[in-house]
UniProtKB/TrEMBL annotation:
Family: Belongs to the group II decarboxylase family.
Cofactor: pyridoxal 5'-phosphate
EC number: 4.1.1.15
Top EC class for this record: lyase
Annotated catalysed reactions: L-glutamate + H(+) = 4-aminobutanoate + CO2
Protein source organism: Corallincola holothuriorum
GO biological process, alphabetically ordered: L-glutamate catabolic process
Keyword terms, alphabetized: Decarboxylase, Lyase, Pyridoxal phosphate
GO molecular function annotation: glutamate decarboxylase activity; pyridoxal phosphate binding
Entry-annotated residues carrying N6-(pyridoxal phosphate)lysine: K270
Listed GO CC annotations: cytosol
InterPro entries cross-referenced by the UniProt entry: Glutamate_decarboxylase, PyrdxlP-dep_de-COase, PyrdxlP-dep_Trfase, PyrdxlP-dep_Trfase_major
Name used for this protein in its record: Glutamate decarboxylase
């Protein structure tokens, strides 16, 4: 293979372009033609997974051509420049209000929230708001404010462990149990105390798709306040559930209808149906987001507030979210979620009928199938199944559950809106055939070694 960096011959065939290198570690000395750069990069990435078959991920991979066009046309817009792009900025405010309403926020308050790069940034902002509020209240009461902690279940997504480490908040993580992979109120008394900045409960967890026992946790915190006088806010991590629950389960109270829920995050790029990266954090009331966290900057002439971890960012995902809200409306999202859920149940049923699997989730709220092999399966494991179906192009997550449920391995399939019944049928067949093959020939996979501080963290 030659590295013809200076090659810019417009007559060179694409076959030859594909042979050219993209450069290893050295910064390229000279440039190449646009055609050549595109061809080389495309060829470089051909062996990546097909995103449509990557069912280990919650992130949206299909968008309409009209939306692609719209996003492309605004890809250069720097969202943070509110002064130059006030109409773009205005979309965020409108959508924060819409989402606040979607999550049943009280009508008599001023909603507040932000578009972020993803739920991770949204979670960090919510965590910071609670840390600030807690510290302020402690100081005002003349109490020690040096030991903040946060209480979560062992099923939390990695972002919360990052938050606690990066922002110096003690992690109080309630371990899971075999057969119960959700945070409940059962052990909270061993974890919650006066230094707890908030409890995080999940709507649509990454491991099994289930919701934590949100109502029960809420009521426990109410009782705790009655007993001790300490009021602890609840944050809901609705990265996945935030754009599913409102459409499928309007009567289910997981959101701001519960008074203790002070903030909620969701990933616009998961069931919000936009491409990566977009997240949302919405506070019950503007007052929850501590004013001290807001900076006012002079940016190209105007003074504008900024209260996100990132500064410059692409406006396209925000515009895309506005498009999707308008394009589908409540009825459209509801229909899409219903269809996706039908396909999920169909897949789950086909796999259960095979006799190899049992289902891990007690409730089925978001379109996730979380399975584990039955006890009678001895000579292969979930990692083998995941590796075997990879031969057919499918990407499925297999992982060891977090403490103290490490004896359980899960095979997780995220059913997204672009999949149809036919594809689901093919997937089920490929998984069952993989099991049959493995039953006969035996599996060889050993679970990957886990890092001590990061036991099990599925992809999102
Ligand atoms: C995906 C996910 C996150 C992280 O969200 P990103 O949008 O990927 O940053 C956090 N919490 C839960 C429950 C998730 O599913």
């Amino acid at each position: 293979m030659s590295n013809r960096d200076e090659h810019n011959d417009p007559n060179i065939s694409m076959y030859e372009e594909f042979q050219l290198e993209i450069g290893e570690n050295e910064f390229p000395k000279t440039g190449v033609s646009a055609r050549s750069a595109k061809a080389r990069l495309e060829a470089h990435m051909w062996t990546d997974a097909n995103p449509m078959l990557n069912l280990s991920s919650f992130v949206t991979t299909f968008i309409e051509p009209e939306l692609k066009e719209l996003e492309g046309a605004h890809a250069h817009v720097n969202y943070v420049d509110h002064d130059m792009y006030p109409k773009t900025y205005d979309l965020e405010t409108r959508m924060v209000n819409m989402i606040h309403q979607l999550w049943n926020g009280p009508a008599d308050v001023e909603p507040y929230g932000a578009a972020t790069v993803g739920s991770s940034e949204a979670c960090m902002l919510a965590g910071l708001a609670h840390k600030w509020n807690w510290r302020e209240a402690r100081k005002a009461a003349g109490k020690d404010a040096s030991k903040p902690n946060m209480v979560t279940g062992g099923n939390v997504q990695i972002v919360w462990k990052k938050f606690m480490k990066y922002f110096d908040v003690e992690a109080k993580i309630v371990p899971l149990e075999v057969g119960n992979y959700r945070l409940t109120a059962e052990h909270l008394d061993e974890y919650v105390d006066e230094n707890t900045i908030c409890v995080v409960a999940i709507a649509g967890q990454t491991f099994t798709g289930e919701d934590d026992e949100i109502q029960e946790i809420h009521d426990w915190l109410d009782a705790y306040e009655k007993k001790t006088g300490i009021s602890i806010p609840l944050h809901i991590d609705g990265a996945s559930g935030g754009f599913v629950n409102p459409f499928l389960y309007p009567d289910y109270e997981w959101d701001f209808r519960l008074p203790r829920v002070q903030s909620i995050n969701a990933s616009g790029h998961k069931f919000g149906l936009v491409n990566p990266g977009l997240g949302w954090v919405v506070f019950r009331d503007k007052k929850v987001f501590n004013e001290d966290l807001i900076f006012y900057v002079n940016y190209l002439g105007g003074e504008s507030p900024t209260a996100t971890l990132n500064f410059s960012r692409n406006a396209a995902p925000i515009i895309a979210q506005a498009y999707q809200f308008m394009r589908y409306g409540f009825e459209g999202y509801k229909r899409i979620m219903e269809l996706t859920m039908e396909n999920t149940v169909h897949l789950r049923d086909l796999l259960l009928e095979s006799g190899y699997f049992e289902v891990m989730n007690k409730t089925q709220r978001i379109p996730v199938v979380a399975l584990t092999l039955k006890d009678h399966v001895k000579n292969f494991n979930e990692f083998d199944v995941s590796a075997k179906v990879r031969e057919k192009g499918w990407v499925l997550s297999a992982y060891t559950m977090p403490p103290k449920a490490e004896t359980v391995v899960s095979l997780r399939i995220v059913v997204r809106a672009h999949l149809n019944k036919h594809v689901i049928g093919q997937l089920a067949e490929d998984i069952i055939n993989a099991c049959k093959y493995l039953e006969e020939h035996g599996g060889t996979a050993t679970p990957p070694a886990l890092h001590s501080h990061d036991k099990s963290s599925p992809k999102c």
